[in-house]
Design goal:
It contains 13 helices and 12 strands. By secondary structure, it is an alpha/beta fold. The chain has 2 domains: 136 residues, Aspartate Aminotransferase, domain 1 (Alpha-Beta Complex), CATH 3.90.1150; 238 residues, 3-Layer(aba) Sandwich (Aspartate Aminotransferase, domain 2), CATH 3.40.640. The strands form 3 sheets. A 7-stranded mixed sheet has the order 2-8-7-6-5-3-4, with helices on both faces. Strands 9-12-11 form a 3-stranded antiparallel sheet. A two-stranded parallel ribbon has the order 1-10. The longest helix has 24 residues. The chain binds glutamine (GLN). Glutamine binds next to loops. Homodimer. GO terms for molecular function: kynurenine-oxoglutarate transaminase activity; L-aspartate:2-oxoglutarate aminotransferase activity; pyridoxal phosphate binding. Its cofactor is pyridoxal 5'-phosphate.
Length: 380
């Protein structure tokens, strides 16, 4: 037993994907699409490797990509950012979160986290020396409560880490929700680390409201985005941060020593993609929305109770409707006996866990989803 690893558990995604490989199960655990991503963007990346520079790009990211990010948020959120001083490219959103925490947190500083908590947050907060404080969200609505947020804040709160749309629940928080958050934070100096990687993976015509566009949040927000999610290529690990200049320069200090840069060919391909992405985004949403509906209907037809999903790659199932009280045991049985991997939502809680919800990734071929439903039916 190595005490140094105590704060660094094996991620549930690695564990479940390994189990899926071992047992030959359909992997609806770890969230990634089996879509190859837009061909023109992939071609651009290939060309850039053959024709472009493959040396270290600028530490803050290629100028063309930072400009494309600024134009993107001018179009989608109506905000104006300074490409030179308010944008930084990172090697995935996870690096952006690590750079935010390592840059901002001194040992003993408090960080507010919303349960269910995306799996990387808590280990990173702890390794940064932060003290986590939890706000707990509950099914079926997972909504924010101003009093609960206020109760988690203290004069030592350095940051609030907020994921919208929320993985694992598929909740898209509205402008009213963000205003609730702004009201709760009104008397606090905390930085809002806004992980918005799912911003474009939203359904039913619902538009994502960024913290960048909300009064009381924008001037304290570290907004994190992900090209991997925008273009359905999660392996690219091209993320970015938008933040006020003083905060951004602090994050950049941490970024220098984490990864320093991100592959230049992927950066120029993302810059190219962002300049003409609107059609791709609409198309991705339509395809994923159809998959969400197909999978949810399939689940319902075989007796499962899917919860609403307004965004992300995930549909959650309410296991309490089946009389199941232990999601971890259920998901274990599901992968071993039915051959379908999923993620127990209780693993996203540090305390006071909800133990009756399982998360399924529906960003898969229709035939894969249909086969998964058949296997689930056989188990019941
Ligand atoms: N974001 C992915 C998910 O939620 C997992 C990424 C990872 O495996 N680290 O499933």
């Amino acid at each position: 037993h190595n005490p140094i690893l105590a704060g660094l558990p094996v991620t549930v995604f690695e564990r479940m994907s390994a189990l899926a490989r071992e047992t030959g199960a359909i992997n609806l655990g770890q969230g990634f699409p089996d879509d190859p991503g837009p061909l023109a963007v992939r071609k651009k990346a290939a060309e850039a490797v053959l024709e472009g520079s493959n040396q270290y790009p600028p530490m803050l990211g290629l100028a063309e990509l930072r400009r494309a990010i600024v134009e993107h948020y001018a179009r989608w959120q109506g905000v104006s950012l300074d490409a030179e001083r308010e944008v930084m490219v990172t090697s995935g959103a996870t690096e952006a979160i690590a750079a935010s925490l390592f840059g901002l947190i001194e040992p003993g500083d408090e960080v507010v986290l919303f349960q269910p908590i995306y799996d990387a947050y808590l280990p990173l907060v702890r390794r940064a020396g932060g003290v986590p404080r939890f706000v707990t969200l509950r099914p079926p609505d997972w909504r924010l409560d101003e009093a609960a947020i206020r109760a988690a804040l203290s004069p030592r709160t350095k940051a609030v880490l907020f994921n919208n749309p929320l993985n694992p629940t598929g909740t898209v928080f509205s402008r009213e929700d963000l205003e609730t958050l702004a009201r709760a934070l009104a008397d606090s100096d905390a930085v809002l680390i806004a992980d918005e990687v799912w911003e474009h993976v939203t359904f039913d015509g619902g538009a994502h409201v960024s913290a960048l566009g909300v009064e009381g949040l924008a001037d304290r927000a570290v907004k994190i985005g992900s090209a991997g999610k925008i273009f359905s290529m999660t392996g690219w690990k091209v993320g970015f941060v938008c933040a006020p200049p003083d905060i951004l320069s602090t994050l950049a200090r941490a970024h220098q020593f984490l990864t320093f840069t991100t592959p230049p060919n992927l950066q120029s391909a993302v810059a190219f993609g962002l300049a003409q992405e609107d059609e791709w985004i609409m198309d991705m949403r339509a395809r994923l929305e159809a998959k969400r509906d197909r999978f949810s209907a399939g689940l319902t037809a075989v007796g499962f109770a899917p919860l609403p999903s307004a965004g992300t790659y995930f549909v959650n199932v309410d296991l309490s409707a089946l009389g199941v009280a232990d999601d971890a045991a259920f998901c274990e049985r599901l992968v071993r006996e039915a051959g379908v991997a999923s993620i127990p939502v209780s693993t996203f809680y540090a305390e006071d866990a909800v133990t009756t919800v399982a998360r399924f990734c529906f960003a898969k071929e229709d035939a894969t989803l249909d086969e998964a439903v058949r296997r689930l039916e056989a188990l019941r």
